[in-house]
Design a protein that fits this description.
about 240 residues; disordered N terminus; about 0% strand; about 85% helix; mainly alpha; 9 helices; single chain
Length: about 240
């Protein structure tokens, strides 16, 4: 009986250690992805030839965007069927491609505005992630609401391409900030519970779950950043 208690104690300790390690890796990989995106964007923006290649042809930009969407879809749908190394390389490729397409913001906004927005995003993301991690209330309802609202602002954004309403533009912008702040808290809680349930040991399967979680948080951060950039940049080009 005593031996069983000792085994259970060690087993619980091992699970807690694995859970903590996976959560750290999830945020580390998200940070590395953001770093690759930022460095790529800065490099492409400083290279006139690359900017011309990407944005001088609508077909090139469209190919890059399609490639990004395909990478996210493949990672989300088939990550458990591929090796961890393959999944990691695909996440890195997506981060770099996203940096290339986002490089245009360096032409649209000043470096000061981009830096200010980044730190504001980091602070907001960090606060909402902490809320999602520590709050005991189930955030599923908030997650569902944010997802439905996200569909709404996507439709509204398409409509606004044709009506060009300034009021609608700013309404979408502020709602977008609230949506991705809420999704950050919801996704953090969801990922924490997922790691608590399945992350009982460090292996390739749980590492891939953590990588998928890092992609989710990466997307929350990027979208929050882009909506805040509209606000800090005043919605106009410098």
């Amino acid at each position: 009986m005593e031996q069983e208690k000792i085994i259970n104690v060690y087993s619980s300790a091992d699970r807690a250690t694995a859970f903590s390690a996976l959560m750290r890796k999830m945020y580390l990989w998200m940070t590395l992805g953001l770093a690759m995106t930022g460095l790529t964007a800065a490099y492409v923006a400083s290279n006139a030839a690359l900017m011309q290649t990407i944005f001088g042809s609508s077909s090139t930009l469209l190919i890059l965007i399609i490639a990004e969407v395909a990478l996210v879809w493949i990672l989300s749908a088939r990550i458990m069927k591929m090796s961890f190394m393959t999944a990691g390389l695909m996440f890195a490729a997506y981060s770099i491609l996203n940096g290339a397409t986002l490089s245009v913001i360096f032409l649209a906004y000043s470096a000061e505005v981009i830096a200010t927005t980044f730190f504001a995003t980091a602070g907001t993301f960090g606060a909402m992630s902490l809320i999602g991690y520590f709050v005991k209330r189930d955030l599923s309802a908030i997650g569902r609401f944010c997802f439905m609202a996200l569909i709404g602002i996507i439709i509204a954004s398409i409509v606004n391409i044709f009506v060009a309403s300034s009021a609608l533009y700013w309404g979408i912008t502020y709602l977008g900030v609230l949506i991705f702040a809420g999704l950050t808290a919801y996704d953090t809680q969801k990922l924490k519970l997922m790691m608590m349930q399945y992350g009982d040991e460090l292996n390739e399967g749980t590492m891939k779950l953590a990588l998928l979680g890092s992609l989710t948080l990466y997307l929350d951060f990027i979208n929050l950043f882009l909506f805040l950039l509209r606000i800090f940049g005043g919605g106009s080009r410098d």
